[in-house]
Design a protein that fits this description.
The protein has 147 residues and is α/β, with parallel strands linked by helices. Helices cover 56% and strands 12% of the residues. The chain has a 5-stranded parallel sheet.
Length: 147
């Protein structure tokens, strides 16, 4: 029998972490298209987390609709995830990404930029339906879920 150091075992068993972009969350919450919901159910609970930025966008959407029922559904759904605060390390990624994209004349939306910086700081794949913007960001691992 071969014995491996715990650090190697942990590394081999560690799952690639994934985070969801707001648009994917919206599709899942609306349960449409069905393909999004089916893909979401294939994910393992311990490999997915949400950025506090995504949680803020979802809560904004609920507040804008002014529907207590929808707000409650958002809160119940969000409560099922690990919500990670935006870390200081993400501020460094944000600055570099924004600077580079603006110099190239290819800026992206502020919230998408923050979500991307957060995913990079957590070494996580970003699941999105908006890969066109996110593919502009070097070293960001993007998993595109098409409709």
């Amino acid at each position: 029998m071969t014995y491996l150091p715990k650090s190697v075992i942990g590394h081999r068993l560690a799952k690639q972490q994934k985070t969801l972009d707001t648009n994917i969350c919206s599709y899942i919450l609306r349960r449409h298209p069905q393909k999004m919901l089916e893909r979401f159910t294939q994910l393992e609970y311990d490999e997915v987390w949400l950025s506090a930025i995504v949680a803020a966008e979802l809560r904004f959407g609920a507040a804008k609709l002014a529907s207590p029922r929808f707000s409650a559904a958002i809160e119940a759904w969000i409560d099922g995830f690990e919500i990670r605060p935006w870390p200081v390390e993400a501020t460094h990624h944000y600055a570099q990404i924004r600077s580079g994209l603006e110099k190239a004349g290819q800026p992206i939306g502020g919230m998408d930029l923050m979500i991307a910086a957060h995913a990079l700081s957590e070494s996580s794949n970003l699941i999105t339906n908006n890969a066109r913007e996110f593919h502009r960001i070097a070293n960001l691992q993007v998993e595109e879920w098409l409709i």
